[in-house]
């Protein structure tokens, strides 16, 4: 090969190598674009959260608040109709059975067995001692409302509940470590209960009152509160304040049962005004209970944060 042909062959090799490199570059670019397209497709399907979407510059679909609020109101209305249907069914079928088989026999038994003073002592003792043995005291509260009304019945119930809230507090203090171990099984509930033992006197009083209003079981809280550092004075005063709504509602339901039992026993009918009054009173009692309970739960969440 001559010397003149050498540069031409080198040029041909350079052209071939450059063409090969350009081809490989195009292939790499196409592969990268394909991978990016696949990632973009996955993002469009919604597999990325808001933080990742902001990082990659992807706009996620925004939910319209109107549709959510309308669906919430639909559920509220349906729930209200279901509750009204349950209340109507109870008044039509459950209430007559309860009056015939429970209320009237109990009232007759009380009249034949106990005098007025003895009945007061029995009600206070049952309301005070049943929670010690983890038994519900609501039936005794109903009987207090049925027999003695709002004024004297309220005093009887509060006297009994003061004993029923104090005895478990002092008895549970003897088993402080065991109750703490028992609460460790439910860490979320334990965290709420421990709010009663934090802060100053007013903070403990407020936490106990809110826990009494909330749907936390009454007889369980009497013992579980011992696992905190709450003092007796804020505990008992907060318990008094927190149980007042429940006591009034229980006495009201007892008076309503007594009125219906008298109507059934004496064979007379309520007037339209009395029916409206009882229905409105029952609905207001239920609505007030729900509002107070929701407020207590919200306040407890605020105290936790």
| Count of separate DSSP helical elements | 12
Output the radius of gyration. 36 Å
Shape label: globular
- Give the structural class: mainly alpha
Total strands: the figure is: 0
Roughly how many Å apart are the termini? 90 Å
Helical content (DSSP H or I, runs of 4+): over 70%
Q: Please summarize the sheet with the most strands.
A: none
Order of helices and strands: HHHHHHHHHHHH
Protein architecture, described:
There is one protein chain. With 305 residues, this protein is mainly alpha-helical. Among the domains are: 95-267, no CATH class; 270-304. It is built from 12 helices and no strands. The chain has helices at 5-44, 50-56, 65-113, 116-129, 138-148, 151-173, 176-183, 187-193, 201-213, 218-224, 232-266, 272-304. The termini are far apart. Keywords: Membrane, Transmembrane, Transmembrane helix. Residues 135-255 form the VTT domain. This is VTT domain-containing protein.
């Amino acid at each position: 090969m001559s010397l003149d042909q050498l540069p031409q062959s080198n040029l041909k090799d350079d052209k071939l190598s450059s063409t090969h490199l350009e081809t490989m570059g195009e292939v790499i670019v196409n592969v990268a674009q394909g991978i990016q397209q696949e990632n973009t497709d996955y993002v469009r399907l919604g597999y990325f959260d808001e933080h990742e979407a902001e990082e990659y510059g992807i706009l996620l679909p925004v939910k319209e608040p109107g549709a959510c609020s309308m669906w919430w109101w639909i559920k509220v209305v349906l729930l209200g109709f279901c509750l009204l249907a349950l209340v109507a069914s109870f008044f039509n079928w459950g209430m007559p059975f309860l009056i015939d088989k429970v209320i009237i026999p109990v009232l007759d038994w009380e009249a034949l067995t106990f005098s007025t003073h003895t009945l007061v002592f029995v009600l206070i003792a049952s309301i005070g001692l049943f929670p010690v043995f983890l038994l519900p005291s609501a039936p005794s509260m109903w009987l207090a409302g049925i027999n003695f009304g709002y004024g004297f019945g309220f005093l009887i119930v509060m006297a009994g509940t003061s004993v029923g809230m104090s005895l478990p507090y002092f008895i549970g203090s003897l088993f402080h470590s065991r109750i703490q171990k028992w609460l460790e099984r439910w860490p979320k509930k334990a965290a709420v209960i421990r709010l009663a033992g934090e802060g100053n006197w007013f903070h403990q009083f407020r936490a106990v009152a809110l826990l009494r209003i909330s749907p936390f079981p009454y007889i369980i809280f009497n013992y579980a509160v011992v696992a905190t550092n709450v003092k007796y004075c804020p505990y008992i005063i907060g318990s008094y304040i927190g149980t007042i709504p429940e006591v009034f509602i229980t006495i009201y339901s007892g008076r309503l049962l007594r009125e219906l039992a008298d109507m059934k026993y004496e064979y007379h009918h309520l007037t339209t005004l009395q029916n409206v009054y009882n229905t409105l009173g029952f609905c207001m009692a239920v609505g007030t209970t729900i509002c107070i309970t929701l407020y207590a739960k919200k306040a407890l969440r605020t105290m936790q944060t």
